[in-house]
Amino acid sequence: MRLAVSLTLLAFALNANAQDKPSAPDTKSNTEGQAIDLGQVGATGGADADTDPNAPNAEAKTASAIAPTQSSLTATQPQTILNSHYIKNIAAPNSDYLAIAQFSPSVINAAPNGAGFSSKSATVRGFQDGQYNVTFDGIPFGDPSAFGHATTSFFPAAVLDHVIVDRGPGTASTVGNATFGGTVSLFSETPSQTAGGRLFSAIGTGAAWEEGGVLNSGVISQTGGTTAQINFDHTRTNGLLENAGFNRNNWAFKVEQPIGNNTVVTVFSSVSDTMWNTFSETTRKASNAFGKSYGNLNGDPTSQAFAGYNTDHRRSDFEYIGVQSDLGVVRIDNKVYTYALSDEGMGGVDPTLRTPNSALLAHGGVPGADVNSQYRSWGDIFKIEGDVGHGLTSTTIRAGAWLEHARINQFEQTVDLRTNTPEEFLTERGLGSIIYNNLAVSNTAQTFVEFDWKPLPGLTITPGYKHVEFNRSFEGTQNFLPLDTSASYSANLGSVTANYRIANPVSVYASWAMGFQAPPVSVLETLGAGQNTLAPQKTLNYQSGVVYKSDRLTADFDGYYINFGNMINSRLETVNGIPNQSVFFNQGGVIYKGIEAEATYEIGQGFAVTANGSLNSAKSKATLLTIANAPSATAAFGVLYDRGPFFGSLLTKYVGPRYTGSGEDPKNPNAKLPAYYYTDLVLGFRYKKLLNVQLLVDNLLNRRTATLGNGAAVDPTFYYLPVRNFTLQATVYF
Questions:
Q1: pLDDT per residue as tens digits for the range 500-513
Q2: Exposure winner among 55, 88, 111, 614, fewest CB in 10 A?
């Protein structure tokens, strides 16, 4: 990394007379296997300051350029695009990608410690983290054990150019281990053709501070047209919850190197170091006593809730080398990659303090756990496509494969937090202090083929087929028991999508697709693993919609019906004479259905109005009751202004009633969470082409409604909307 930074700084010095960069190959499809009309959505991908819609003194925008959420005229399934204008001018500067996506239809996200410092349990149509893909520049990533995501450790807003929320499994070329819940696609900036950059700094409530910058080399003629970018972001805060501090440093580095006129090689690296105090949901008794900004952290070193004991330190990295080449007859796109996360943490056994110290340690100690885990994944995504036929037979044939190997080590030990030394708890006499110490290894292979058939002008029909092979082994200690288990799964998935451009501003689409999710590692973490009878969880998705885009109006509407089958459940059995061992099996499923819409209308004189919303249903086939964390409805609406030196927005997000814990339970009133809403305000000013200043106020009306809970029938716990908070940011362009 240091060598790469040094080479880039040298390139800046050499690049006093930048020249135009050779044109990139016409790859015709993006890294997700579908075309995206980024030019229409205002995602500049790191354009020069003269054309960047986020640069100071930019002219008044079209509806497509300033819309917070919108779809694409080439969409083949419901999607929401959040472009660079939204990320840089509306979203909080310290946002993570979930805080960026939360204004999308059918998406909910809770951030009790503030946007970017604490995203929790974001759902898309009721699909929870681990049930939908997240990709970066087309590469799926996540925790290999259950496919969840450490949202604060990968790709803060400063690294991102735009985000696309695809609410469906996509086509056959959409790869990942959790495609049935959709894909949240993150995209990095493209290095600028012109040398320069920006420096930014922000201060905010909770002693929040952010500083960073982006440096672009411009085109380096001496090396054949190289462009490079360095991105640095430092963020720290005391937190909007009491004692919930957060500190992160993130470096990102990207180089694009043309080779001849038809090939571009891309090298990317991002490294993050994050530390924070691990807060948790609070009981009603605690929030009544200490307020809704209490997160079970205090300053008492004799307490399991002592902030100094409840800490987490995560280090992550993500690298890839990509090659895109147009060879005339065929086009290729290949990315070889690796990413990793190291997590070192400790914490009290029960920070809510309902379990006294003496119940676990007899000598006056403070019971807790020391947890360490590391995972690393290596993989490759290869795609090749070519055009055949003409007229009625005009077709683009695309094929490829995704291969990934992942390893995850986990260790947890019970300790006395005062001395951080191993201790055997009173409740675990004879078992020792090591709860788990194991290694899980997984391998994924997905091969696919699909055809973009264009029988008529404006009509594209894309049938496709994908074969999935997934295997995982597990070895070591889990819950004090030695285990050595393994399992393999396979699936054949089909899809058919169609997009028809009726007229220049209007398109309609429809899709039928099969989604897939490999079982989590927990199905192997039991003596009953040998008795499991599992098939991968799958969905059948039926979706259709219409998109309209003009200078004054961007709008879209869709409907969906999803049949989720093979839902994994478990029962407790006695295995090898040991009671209460989980045996997993497929049981029932869920029916998801609903409608979604979004629109932005440019009124004139710099003003625009925007609204989006959804009506959602997610009910168990067996009980006909609503599952956990699935909203009944979402909505977002407000007004935008962007003209001359001034810009701003006033947006409100509404989330309807939903159920928590294990879902709807007529016998448990604590399972239902109330509807809530929050309003965010942005006031901004640009000075020539040199300076942006903006004030952001999140939760303007200071609503403190419960957003998440554990659904316990007795003494439940909750998270709440964060207190009203302010951020003042300044960005200098050069």
A1: 999 989 999 999 99
A2: 55
Q: What is the pLDDT of residue 13?
A: 35
When pLDDT is cut at 50, 70 and 90, the band that residue 519 belongs to is confident
Only one residue has tokens 């085109």, namely 219
Sign of the Cα torsion 471, 514, 622, 714 reads positive
3-state secondary structure (DSSP) of residue 133: strand
DSSP result, 430-442 = TT-SEEEEEEEEE
Are the CB atoms for 445 and 430 separated by under 8 Å?
no
Measure the CA dihedral 37/41/42/47, to 10°.
-20
Cα-Cα-Cα-Cα torsion 689, 693, 694, 695, nearest 10 degrees, comes to -170
CA distances for 189 relative to 24, 180, 201, 580, angstroms = 16, 28, 19, 51
User: Strand, coil or helix: what is 427?
Assistant: helix
Q: Which residues have CB under 8 Å from 455's CB, separation 6+?
A: 392, 393, 394, 461
pLDDT tens-place string over residues 54-106: 444 445 579 999 999 999 999 999 999 999 999 999 999 999 999 999 999 99
Round to whole Å and give the CA distance between 686 and 689. 8
Question: C-alpha angle with apex 503: 499 to 508, nearest 5 degrees?
Answer: 30
**Token match 């159920």: residue?**
659
| Whole-number Å distance between alpha carbons of 243 and 237 | 10
Q: Which pTM value belongs to this model? A: 0.91
Could you identify the residue written with the tokens 């696609």? 185
Q: How many CB atoms lie within 10 A of CB 277?
A: 24
Q: All domains of the chain, ordered by start, with CATH?
A: 2-733 (2.40.170.20)
Q: Nearest 5°: phi and psi at 2?
A: -65, -40
What's the mean pLDDT in 248-262? 96
Exposed e or buried b per residue across 464-488, where buried means at least 16 C-beta atoms within 10 angstroms of its C-beta: bbbebebebbbebbbeeeebebebe
How far is Cα of residue 189 from the mean position of the Cα atoms in its chain? 17
Torsion region of 368: left, alpha or beta (phi above 0 gives left; psi -120 to 50 gives alpha): beta
Calpha distance 119→110 (Å, rounded): 6
Rounded mean pLDDT of 616-625?
Answer: 94
Bridge partners for 506 per DSSP: 503, 548
Sorted by sequence, the CB contacts under 8 Å of residue 109 that are 6+ apart come out as: 98, 99, 101, 102, 119, 120, 121, 122
Alpha-carbon separation of residue 214 from 22, 26, 252, 405, 538 (angstroms): 23, 27, 9, 33, 42
- For 562, which DSSP code? E
Residue written as token pair 């625009």? 608
Tell me what percent of the chain is helix, strand and coil, each rounded to the nearest 5: 10, 55, 35
The Cα 155–Cα 270 span in angstroms is 8
Pairing state between β 282-283 and 311-326: unpaired
How is 490-519 classified by DSSP, letter by letter?
EEEEEEEEEEEEEETTEEEEEEEEEEEEPP
Cβ neighbours of residue 578 under 8 Å, at least 6 residues apart?
481, 527
DSSP one-letter code for 178: B
